[in-house]
Amino acid sequence: MAQDRDESRGGDQNTTESAEESDSTTNTTSTTTHSSTSSSASSSTSSSDSDEEEDEEEGEEGEEEQQLEEDAETRLDKLGHQHATLGGRLSQLLRDKAAAENVKKRLNDGLLRAKARIKAIEDKLEE
Questions:
Q1: N or C: which end of the chain has fewer CB within 10 A?
Q2: What was the pLDDT predicted at 58?
Q3: d(C-alpha 100, C-alpha 88), whole Å
Q4: What pLDDT is recorded for position 46?
């Protein structure tokens, strides 16, 4: 978008420069012929027409830019919502993982105690 604006500005500058060149050319020859003066008038008319076209293009570009900004804000809002949702899910998964690890540790501790009891009972039976 910025590149388009830069290009259109560059086009504006070229148009202005060419209008100035034709004005300076016609000014030097306007003293000799009347037709040169009329070409100068027509170039200023075409210059004002191009100014109107440029204004319309800038208006359209402004509308397009505003629409793009609104679209970007909408996408940003959606991404923010998704980020919050995924963050909540991640937090819940981490809590679930910690709880599962605690259960696993308690089961392993219980298993070790049970094995120790079995070993103690076997030792008593052997005596």
A1: C
A2: 78
A3: 18
A4: 54
Q: Which two tokens stand for residue 121?
A: 């009972």
- Neighbouring C-alpha atoms within 13 Å toward the C-beta of 34: 0
Total Cβ atoms within 10 A of residue 74: 10
pTM exceeds 0.85 for this model: no
Average pLDDT, consecutive stretches of 10 residues, N- to C-terminus, the chain (127 residues): 48 45 44 46 56 76 90 96 96 98 98 98 92
The answer to whether the CB of 36 falls within 8 A of the CB of 26 is: yes
| Triad 31, 36, 39: Cα angle to 5° | 145
What residue has token string 């009347």?
A: 34
In Å, what is the CA distance from 78 to each residue of 71, 88, 103, 116? Answer: 11, 15, 37, 57
Q: What is the DSSP letter of 39?
A: H
